[in-house]
Design brief:
- By secondary structure, the chain is an alpha/beta fold.
- It has a single domain (7-295), classed as TIM Barrel.
- 32% of the residues lie in helices and 14% in strands.
- It contains 10 helices and 10 strands.
- It has helices at 7-16, 19-28, 32-36, 76-81, 100-107, 136-149, 176-179, 201-212, 245-258, 283-295; strands at residues 47-49, 70-73, 87-91, 115-122, 154-158, 183-186, 220-225, 227-228, 264-268, 277-278.
- Helix 8 links the parallel strand 6 and strand 7 (220-225).
- The radius of gyration is 19 Å and the shape is globular.
- Residues 1-13 and 18-44 have low confidence and may be disordered.
């Protein structure tokens, strides 16, 4: 794998993208607390993302009712529909490098004021064993093309665990120096039918594994389990189950220990995908996230 020799400089540039808007958002920090009853500190809320079936027929952003402010979008029309204070993470899902199709999709939305960034791919397979091989060089080309046209646009992938839930492993091929990707999602889903209690230590194992792969925690997007039932199968012989109110709180607290200041966090999933229960249908979990999403605050000043 060929690495650029200016990776430290690029890392500084990546962090610098977030400073200016972080300063602007900091001004608002003195106003929001009076409205939602939280103490003023340096930077207001994080960005909060919960993908799948985000829009109603009239293009209302449904997850807003649980305090989410980062939308799963795939068109300019959806970006246009977002209200003030909400942005969009544009789904691409290609991992083919800079093709005409890639250029067409990205060019249509990259200059939109509501574009937060681009979700390049979900579960990229570095080996081609489970799905088409996703090469780090293709992701690097995509990420560079985006950054060269808009330096503050975030590039994101949700990484595949190529190990197991007991011994997770992530490919070092996708580390920032090789892929030029900004942020990486890791998704331990600890609540399962085969266990009497959620295995919160799974979060610890995933965080340790991502560090071993050469990705620092300041680039990690915590991913929370907000689904259960349906056709999903676990690697430990059972099915996932929807966490309870208290289990979700414990999950959020556990993540807070390891990644206290992510650029955004990720609740999977808002809408169902495989006849499962999800956040959209659970008022109990929506209450947990309403509080979490409104009270979460950054303690440092890089912010998209």
């Amino acid at each position: 794998m060929i690495e650029r020799n200016d990776s430290s400089l690029r890392d500084k540039r990546w962090r610098a993208r977030f400073v200016l808007s972080g300063m602007l958002i900091g001004i608002v920090a003195n106003v929001l607390p009076a409205v939602i009853g939280i103490e003023a500190r340096e930077i207001p809320q994080l960005w909060h993302f919960s993908p799948n079936t985000n829009f109603t027929a009239d293009l209302t952003f449904a997850p807003a009712r649980a305090g989410f402010n980062l939308a799963d979008v795939s068109s300019k029309q959806e970006l246009d529909a977002l209200s003030e204070g909400t942005k969009g993470l544009v789904w691409l899902g290609q991992c083919e490098g800079v093709t005409p199709r890639f250029e067409s999709v990205v060019s249509a939305v990259i200059d939109h004021p509501k574009t937060f960034g681009f979700y390049l791919v979900d579960d990229p397979d570095p080996s081609g064993r489970w799905r088409s091989r996703c090469k780090a060089s293709d992701l690097r080309a995509e990420s560079d093309w985006i950054h060269n046209r808009r330096s503050d646009a975030v590039t994101f992938v949700a990484l595949m665990n190529v190990g197991t839930s007991a011994t997770p492993q992530f490919s070092s091929e996708y580390r920032p120096e090789a892929s030029h990707i900004d942020l990486f999602g890791i998704a331990p889903y600890p609540c399962r039918t085969e266990w009497s209690q959620c295995d919160y230590e799974m979060i610890d194992r995933y965080v340790a594994a991502i560090k071993t792969a050469g990705i620092s925690v300041d680039r990690v997007v915590p991913t929370f389990q907000t689904f259960g039932g349906g056709e999903w199968q676990t690697d430990s012989g059972g099915k996932y189950r929807l966490p309870t109110f208290s289990e979700m709180e414990s999950m959020l607290e556990r993540w807070q220990r390891f990644v206290p200041n992510p650029v955004f966090d990720y609740a999977f999933s808002w809408g169902p995908q495989r006849a499962d229960q999800s956040l959209a249908s659970s008022l109990e979990l929506q209450r947990v996230f309403m509080r979490h999403n409104r009270q979460s605050r950054r303690s440092e000043s890089y912010h998209p």
